[in-house]
Amino acid sequence: MKIEYLLLMFFGLGIINSCADECDNVVCLNGGICDNGECFCPNGFSGIDCEIEDVCITHNIDCQNGGTCLDGLCDCLDGYLGTNCERFDSTKVQDLLDGGRTPLELVNGNIPIDSLYGKFYKGGLIFYVDVNDEIDGIEGMVAAMDDSAVWGCSGTDIVSLNNVPWNGGNLPDGIGAEIGHGFINTSEILTACTTNGIASKLCRDFGNQWFLPSIKELDLMYTNLDQNGYGDFANDEYWSSTEYDADFAWSKVFKNDFSNGFLALIAKFENLHVRAAKSF
Could you tell me which of 258, 256, 260 has the C-alpha nearest to residue 223? Predict the structure, then answer.
């Protein structure tokens, strides 16, 4: 009888132990749920017992403008400030450029493109950044010196330049008028017009990469520099390198009380303001 009792107890305990809940000795923290002896943790917690908390997730920390949350704090990209990187410090842009960062790098790093206009870079003031990579070989453009001169070649229709027609008061379109055309225009003008003191010569004398801007490049100077108070532009007309015909070329009025920002066709022998540009 004793032996039978002991055998019953032995096998009975074995049966009881085999049916024990695997989660009996598992304590899941922070709202974790045990299943088959393993803790399944809520969002923001990890570890064997859900003991590790990611504060960035549990406190819903929203780092803006490309910032990254680390240990509950936002690590902001250069130029951004605030608990959530919500404020941009425009005073940092020039420092970043001076430190070797390119305008395109800064724009790709979520720094507002408008904050680059008027900043000094590559010998001039930034007035254009090609964020969409639309023009091969050009990331942007800067504007430099201010002078005055005639356009040159009065009475001569430069064969290698396209005559860009009037467009009903809108910016003209076509070869010679577009962004990226100023450098070629300037080279063609200097080939045909050998007289010193003309607008294109003044620009090229500033350096072999400098040019008289096309009408659309000049318009960008007006919009992104002059209209934002950069560049100290004169209250007068500025030449573009875009030709209209043998006698006239395209210009734009800067800060005139009666025709601010207007386009104009001016006789090539007239003396207008000149602002050199360069691509980077």
Answer: 260
